[in-house]
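sry for the spam today, last one i promise. struct tokens for design, 325 residues
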């Protein structure tokens, strides 16, 4: 159940200390909603602490880093934990899980249809383009947005919609984006940074993956695998890491006739990560088979254990084929 927005605003108005976090492996929407919301609560005179795992330097275009909390000292006992862009407790970092257990109050602001309503107050709409769009709805006629808040929210919306292209982009999404743009934000710079720019290493890695990707079922399913061994022996860019793979799975779905794209890669922590994108098949349901989740057309999972990227790929292809038939 999603709570009444007025009730959540009243509750926020009455509280003083806030700890805001997004999901593990932060992406643009998670970072943008943490900082956008954090800056807005700071403007309301609240004590705001934002905490999350380290993120890619391209997200430095998002304002609000002065709100970062090192996670060391204990919050005062009456603090509120706010989780954004997280469908369930499993998406939280260990420190955030601790706070979820110890703090008396929690709020979740999210746009995953799989959301488990794990917080005390849940503000969730599975049809919204992004968590940032949800944060905007919460802040509208509550906090006077400024340039920095608007930049952070716009950045998250651009990221999660792939530059306002994905199916979840609605008329409301563009209305919100237009209102944010009216505050004089550097929208071209943010858009270019988060949608188009790639490092030399990322381009080389992309070239290698495009060279090695495969398809089945007359090109309806396009997939690629990247093991740590492949990553480390990659002579053109020896410093490549799995962070340099962001956005690759979306490029695979740009192949004409592709209905599902799959990228399976190994992180340096040896976990196997899957990323799925789709034009029709519910890949969120497929990711859930592997303990992951996401949205109908964009989903992922992280698999700890003994399987290689190639074994995981074989298992997932079977489920994709089943879903296509
Ligand atoms: P990506 O493929 O870009 O990592 O993630 C696409 C979407 O899938 C994200 O918005 C997120 O909702 C979901 N997702 C990605 N990885 C995981 C994961 O390990 N666990 C869960 N539950 N969801 C994930
Ligand atoms: Mn999101």
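last one done:
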């Amino acid at each position: 159940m999603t709570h009444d927005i007025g009730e959540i605003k009243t509750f926020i108005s009455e509280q003083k200390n806030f700890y805001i976090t997004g999901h593990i492996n932060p992406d643009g929407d998670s970072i943008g909603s943490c900082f956008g919301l954090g800056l807005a609560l700071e403007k309301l005179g609240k004590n705001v602490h934002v905490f999350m795992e380290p993120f890619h330097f391209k997200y430095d275009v998002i304002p609000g880093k002065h709100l970062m909390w090192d996670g060391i000292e204990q919050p005062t006992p009456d603090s509120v934990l706010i989780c954004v862009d997280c469908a369930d407790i499993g998406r939280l970092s260990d420190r955030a899980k601790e706070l979820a257990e110890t703090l008396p109050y929690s709020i979740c602001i999210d746009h995953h249809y799989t959301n488990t309503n794990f917080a005390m107050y849940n503000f969730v709409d599975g049809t919204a383009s992004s968590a940032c769009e949800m944060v905007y709805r919460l802040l509208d006629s509550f906090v006077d947005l400024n340039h920095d808040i608007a930049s952070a929210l716009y950045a998250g919306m651009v990221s999660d919609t792939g530059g306002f292209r994905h199916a979840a982009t609605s008329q409301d999404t563009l209305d919100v984006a237009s209102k944010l743009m009216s505050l004089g934000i550097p929208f071209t710079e943010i858009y270019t940074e988060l949608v188009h720019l790639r490092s030399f290493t990322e381009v080389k890695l992309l070239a290698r993956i495009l060279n090695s990707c495969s398809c089945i079922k007359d090109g309806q399913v396009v997939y690629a695998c990247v093991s740590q061994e492949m990553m480390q022996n990659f002579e053109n860019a020896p410093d490549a890491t799995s962070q340099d793979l962001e956005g690759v799975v979306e490029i695979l779905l740009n192949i004409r006739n592709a209905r599902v794209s799959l990228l399976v890669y190994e992180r340096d922590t040896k976990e196997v990560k899957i990323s799925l994108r789709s034009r029709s098949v519910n890949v969120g349901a497929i990711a859930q088979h592997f303990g992951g989740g996401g949205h109908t057309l964009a989903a992922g999972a992280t698999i700890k254990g003994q399987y290689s990227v190639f074994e995981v790929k074989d298992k997932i292809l079977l489920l994709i084929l089943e879903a296509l038939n």
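The radius of gyration is 20 Å. ok im logging off now
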